[in-house]
Design a protein that fits this description.
The protein is mostly beta strands. It has a single domain, classed as Glutaredoxin. The protein has 3 helices and 11 strands; from the N terminus they run βαβαββαβββββββ. A 4-stranded mixed sheet has the order 2-1-3-4, sandwiched between helices. The protein has a 4-stranded antiparallel sheet with strand order 8-7-10-11, covered by helices on one side. Strand 10 and strand 11 form a beta hairpin. The longest helix is centred in the middle third of the chain and has 13 residues. It is globular.
Length: 231
Amino acid sequence: MALGVLLALHAPGALMAQEEAVRQPVVVELYTSQGCSSCPPADALLAELAGREDVIPLALHVDYWDYIGWKDAFAMPGFTKRQKGYARAQGEKMIYTPQVIVNGREDAVGSRPMKVADLILKESARLTPVRLTLARSGAELVITIASKVKIRPCDIHLIRYLPQQQVDILRGENAGHSITYTHIVRDWQVVGQWQGDTMLEKRVPFDGDAPVVVLVQEQRYGPILAAARLR
């Protein structure tokens, strides 16, 4: 995408001076399930985002399709809870798959590439005053957050994901298909809060070689203000 042609100061939400604001990777959360026949095109679309430094794709497999004959081994109740939390925050009464939520702000049907691309482009133009950096230090991950502008309180989310795995589905709506899933979230923790008015350095245990993502997100399923990844 030709992001260089966008005028950052005219982007929605770019309310701070240019020198105080930065661009952040766009976080694309896909709510999906191995038991959902409408999901494979969305899973494939998420895979196409691999390798892009300006996008952080995350596949959150939900558990509410497990009853139709195939239990999704990647599904976690916490991902269903997170999707429901977004729905409540946005005044929606129902959840569905495949759903994409971009930067915690807007959503789309995950199998509609043009709509998803439009949301990514829109969020790519958004500036944030929050600066987030990650660094390894032995068996710890060092998270540093700062802003020159007062920010509402935020949660600090730490996510580990599996880059790719192929699954042979034997039952349910996708029976007989072999599907390659990508960016499969296997662990999601809230490791602290940031009050938004001072610089924060936080150290958390860090081991293994799975990629790690950190999000700074306004509380109660608000917008994601900053994101960073170590692969």
